[in-house]
Design a protein that fits this description.
Elements lengths: L6 E2 L3 H20 L5 E6 L4 H16 L3 E6 L3 H13 L5 E4 L9 H5 L13 H8 L8 H12 L8 E5 L6 H10 L3 E5 L6 H5 L4 E4 L17 E4 L3 E2 L5 E2 L12 E2 L6 H20 L1
Parallel strand pairs: 1-11, 2-3, 2-4, 5-6, 5-7, 7-8, 8-11
Antiparallel strand pairs: 9-10
Helix pairs in contact: 1-9, 6-7, 6-9
The protein binds NADP nicotinamide-adenine-dinucleotide phosphate.
Length: 281
């Protein structure tokens, strides 16, 4: 890590490194007759979601991964598509896109995805295995947090990591990954009393709340490394994190939004697909 106050921890260079290694591995797999293939099941007409799916498919194509997008509109349709993909030996990674049809629960549907194809760690079985220290794909976003901390050589052993957010896609899996690295972990959420008093104790602060500018300069101590997972749409069509950029004047280092966790997340998701294809081969 640079150690300069207010350093920007960009994810773009790391993402490019991961993509290059993934493309090389995808080419090897393709040359041996096992082209890596990803499938995305989508049951929404939501434009933001559709745009995300297009960006995943384009990113996959750029590293040599085939990507199919299956559209349906009902929970039964989702379950049937997932069951078919589970049995398809030519599909190595499966993503279930949200939002889901009314009344459908991600936790129920995602259990149909075999753990070895669950490249975004959506299944409760994957999260359980992660918690138990067994092999499983972590949600790519949670893994991106750790990948950024490692890339910038941020010490975790014995340090206090505070996570704001307890979702199954980010907060909880990030906690398990940080525990595995011997950090002392505190998880905060919307009922946490006196959030700033806790976040100010952090050596590493991971924020995944989905609330623009939730974390301001008063929440952070000098020396803290801040990873901002939040992505909040701004009125001008842009993207803002959960951390007020003014935090950079206090913290040791801060990931930008966009350009921090996001690109690393996408790159890791695709790396998981080639890892799944390699194991399956
Ligand atoms: N960059 C990426 O690749 C990527 C990927 C996934 C998600 N994200 C972004 O990360 C953010 C979080 O996503 P998510 O899916 O984890 O969201 P989520 O399921 O809505 O969970 C948000 C968490 O934040 C907590 N929270 C909300 N308001 C809070 C407050 N005022 N003080 C303290 N905690 C509060 C909630 O507490 P309760 O549990 O008490 O409700 C909940 O645990 C979103 O902005 C999302 O867009 C980014």
């Amino acid at each position: 890590m640079t150690g300069l106050p207010g350093s920007e921890l960009s994810g773009r260079e790391l993402a490019a490194q991961i993509r290059a290694a993934t493309a090389a591995r995808a080419a090897e797999l393709t040359a041996t007759g096992r082209p890596p293939r990803l499938a995305v099941v989508s049951a929404t007409a939501d434009e933001a979601s559709a745009s995300y799916v297009r960006s995943i498919a384009n990113a996959a194509a750029r590293v040599g991964i085939d990507c199919d997008v299956l559209h349906t509109s009902t929970a039964n349709g989702v379950a049937a598509a997932l069951a078919q993909l589970a049995d398809d030996p030519e599909v190595h990674g499966v993503i279930l896109q949200t939002p889901l049809p009314d009344g459908a629960r991600l936790a129920d549907l995602a259990t149909v995805i075999p753990v070895e194809k669950d490249v975004d760690g959506a299944s409760p079985l994957s999260l359980g295995r992660l918690a138990a220290g067994l092999p499983a794909f972590a949600p790519a976003t949670a893994e991106a947090v750790l990948a950024l901390l490692d890339h910038y050589e941020v010490e975790l052993h014995g340090r206090h990591a505070v996570i704001v957010g307890r979702s199954v896609v980010v907060g909880k899996p990030a906690a398990h990954l940080l525990l595995d690295r011997h950090a002392t972990v505190t998880i905060c959420h919307s009922r946490t009393a006196d959030l700033p008093a806790i976040t100010r104790q952090a050596d590493v602060l991971v924020v995944a709340a989905g609330r623009a500018a939730l974390i301001g300069p008063d929440h952070v101590s000098p020396g803290t490394t801040v990873i901002d997972v939040g992505t909040n749409a701004t009125p001008d069509g842009g993207l803002a994190g959960d951390v007020d950029p003014a935090v950079a004047a206090v913290a040791a280092a801060l990931t930008p939004v966009p350009g921090g966790v996001g690109p690393v997340t996408t790159a890791l998701l695709l790396r998981h697909v080639v890892e799944a294809a390699a194991v399956g081969g």
